[in-house]
Design goal:
The chain is α+β, with helices and mostly antiparallel strands. 37% of the residues lie in helices and 21% in strands. A five-stranded mixed sheet has the order 5-6-1-7-8. α4 packs antiparallel against α6, α11 crosses α12 and α13 runs antiparallel to α14. It starts with 22 loop residues before the first strand and ends in an 11-residue tail after the last strand.
Length: 421
């Protein structure tokens, strides 16, 4: 979710000039919170926080009413409730979000085959080839917004521009429930007053590096010599930003998504210091990550873990596997080995397991024998049970009798696979 509360929203007039455009960025408004309000109309107009109610989880989404108090995603729920004591905490329902996401993505694909989902609630569309059928880019954007609200009951915001970068910036500025069109000829005029933090790809550290040199807006970047940008951001990022602030973005809308990583994190309901329990939880998370790898037809070459301590200090470690794998035990063993290299000097608040450097399953060919054959049979049984009876129906014996002490959530959930309907 974005961090804006909609107070500085800018939208286009009905007769906005869309000459030279053709790229749309469609972003659902406070998606998780909106779905919860759709299913429970009594929540409408109220400050909603989607997360676990015990206060140790993080905010997955928040309504705009809550955002106006400073509530934002990834914030601890306890902090959100201090900022907005009247907020209503609602448990997340990811299966329901995936269901609505599938409806939305189907609407996009009805308009153009050139759809690039970025996440469960946003996508790029290239509509340049759909003009004869549906009208100009701005007309198509208005039709999409109308259809999404009519068919799903929730709203979206759309940026229309000549490039992906500008379209994404535009959709953020017009949220919630807005449309902002940036004609190609007005790209520089649109970009110049924007803060450097609004640039796609500029994170907090990069922004601080620029701001420390007196570079606060895109106009400042335009006036900055290239070598200064390179020193502030590194040559690769310096070159990228130099082009983006000039409206130069050659990236096309890509319909083929290549997973970069798959991960799960768990925030405990209370800080834990028991290494044996932490090791078991890493294996549990590894099983979930491996299941998603197998479902997507991927193998991981690298395993990474994240450990966040009680004081919010966060440590990451990674390890390259001897052979790419989608086996839960293999990924779990690597995760636990990485944990052993970390000094557990205080209790742990969160752990996470991530599979990285993915490749298609079997991409390296088959060896003469499979050292993980037994573990694969166990994984096959878990997959079969999950398909037949749902998640959690079957688990490892080592987890039996354990009380759930936190919430395991997917990191950056991907959009659902297209339906066969």
């Amino acid at each position: 979710m974005g961090r804006g509360d909609g107070s500085e929203r800018i939208v286009s007039d009905a007769d906005a000039d869309d000459s030279g455009t053709g790229i749309l960025h469609v972003d659902m408004d406070a998606f998780y919170a909106s779905v919860e309000m759709l299913d429970d109309p009594s929540l409408r107009g109220k400050p909603i926080v989607v997360g676990a109610p015990e206060g140790r989880s993080v905010v997955s989404s928040a309504s705009y009413e809550a955002r106006r108090f400073g509530v934002r995603s990834a914030m601890p729920v306890s902090q959100a409730l201090r900022l907005c004591p009247q907020a209503i905490v609602v448990l997340p329902h990811f299966d329901r979000y995936l269901e609505v996401s599938r409806q939305v993505m189907k609407i996009f694909s009805d308009v153009t085959p050139l759809v690039e989902p970025l996440s469960i609630d946003e996508a790029f569309l290239d509509v340049r080839g759909a003009r004869r059928l549906w009208g100009s880019p701005a007309e198509i954007a208005r039709a999409i917004r109308s259809r999404v609200q009519l068919e799903t009951g929730i709203t979206c915001s759309v940026g229309v521009a000549s490039t992906k970068h500008v379209a994404k910036m535009a959709s953020t500025i017009c949220k919630p429930d807005g449309l902002l069109v940036v004609p190609a000829a007005a790209t520089e005029e649109f970009l110049r007053p924007r803060p450097v933090r609004a640039l796609w790809g500029i994170g907090p550290k990069s922004a601080e590096s620029l701001e420390g040199r007196g570079i606060h807006t895109v106009a400042d970047v335009l006036d900055t010599p290239r070598d200064v940008l390179d020193r502030a951001l590194g040559p690769a990022m310096g070159e990228r930003i130099w082009h983006l602030v000039r409206g130069i973005d050659a990236r096309a809308v890509s319909t083929t998504h290549v997973e970069k990583s798959i991960g799960h994190e768990e925030t405990f309901s209370e800080d834990l210091a028991d290494p044996a329990y932490l090791r078991a939880e890493l294996l549990r998370l590894a099983d979930r990550v491996a299941g998603r790898l197998r479902h997507g037809g991927w193998e991981a070459s690298t395993v990474a873990i994240k450990v966040r301590f009680a004081d919010f200090t966060t440590i990451s470690r990674s390890q390259t596997l001897s052979e790419p794998s989608d086996v839960g035990q293999r990924i779990g063993d690597a995760a636990r080995e990485l944990l052993s290299s970390i000094d557990l000097h205080q209790a742990v608040r969160l752990v996470g397991v991530r599979a990285e450097k993915l490749r298609p399953t079997g991409g390296g060919g088959m060896g003469l024998w499979d050292d993980d054959a037994e573990w694969r049979r166990i994984d096959d049984a878990l997959d079969d049970a999950t398909a037949r009876f749902g998640k959690g129906a079957v688990t490892r014996a080592t987890f039996l009798g354990r009380t759930e002490r936190g919430a395991s959530l997917p990191s950056h959930p991907r959009p659902p696979e297209p339906s066969d309907d």
